[in-house]
Design a protein that fits this description.
Low-confidence stretches: 1-8, 15-45, 47-56
Helix content: over 70%
Shape: elongated
Number of domains: 3
Length: 229
């Protein structure tokens, strides 16, 4: 009897505890369910935008790639055009350079030839002007053989002499007088020194053996003189 009552009390306790346990379990489930739902929703929400972003990013990359390819193609065309222009310009410059070299070479040859001819025939005009004098000498010699008139011979020589003077003047050659002037070593060469006949003539030229000549401003021949001391 006592045992039966004991079982009954235990059974009652279990029955009382069981609803509370079930309620606790249900409550736990109810408390956890909204959280799980929120977490699942968040997971879905996170996945959905990410998928969209990846798709948008892929499209954007493709657009950027297309945009990148387009300028590259345009730049390549521009580069080819510039290269062609530079090659054409280079070809024109090379042709111009070759023409200039040819012209300069012709100019150099022509100048060298003119210089050689100038040196070779520098005295051509002078000698051409002297030839008539030779003709005069030949005629004078011929006439002198047929005459004994001294005056005629003298006049012939004077004519020839004046003609020579005229020729050298035409070539800008002029004589420099040295007689009775102070000795100047820049244009004179002392062939001898003699005692001065007077005080006034000391250091001066008392005799001129050969005259000095200058062509324009250049001395082409020094005077040969005798100086008194």
């Amino acid at each position: 009897m006592m045992e039966k009552n004991t079982l009954s009390e235990e059974t009652k306790n279990e029955m009382q505890a069981s609803p509370q346990s079930e309620l606790s379990t249900d409550k736990t489930i109810d408390e956890q369910k909204p959280n799980d739902i929120l977490e699942n929703d968040n997971t879905l929400n996170d996945n959905a935008p990410n998928t969209g972003k990846k798709h948008v990013s892929s499209n954007q990359n493709q657009t950027n790639a297309d945009n990148t390819n387009t300028p590259d193609a345009s730049s390549e065309e521009n580069l080819k055009e510039k290269i062609q222009e530079m090659e054409q310009r280079l070809s024109e410059l090379n042709e111009k350079h070759i023409r200039l070299l040819a012209e300069f070479d012709n100019f150099r040859k022509r100048t060298r030839k003119e210089k050689e001819e100038l040196l070779k025939y520098a005295g051509e005009n002078v000698w051409k002007s002297i030839l008539p004098i030779i003709d005069d000498f030949e005629r004078a010699i011929k006439e002198n053989n047929n005459t004994n008139d001294i005056e005629t011979i003298k006049k012939g020589f004077e004519l020839i002499y004046n003609k020579i003077k005229h020729i050298i003047q035409q070539n800008n050659i002029t004589p420099i007088d040295s007689l009775h002037k102070d000795f100047n070593p820049d244009i004179m060469e002392a062939m001898a020194k003699v005692p001065a006949p007077s005080e006034e003539l000391k250091g001066k030229v008392i005799e001129e053996m050969e005259k000095a000549y200058q062509m324009n401003d250049k001395i082409i021949r020094f005077a040969k003189v005798i100086v008194a001391e």
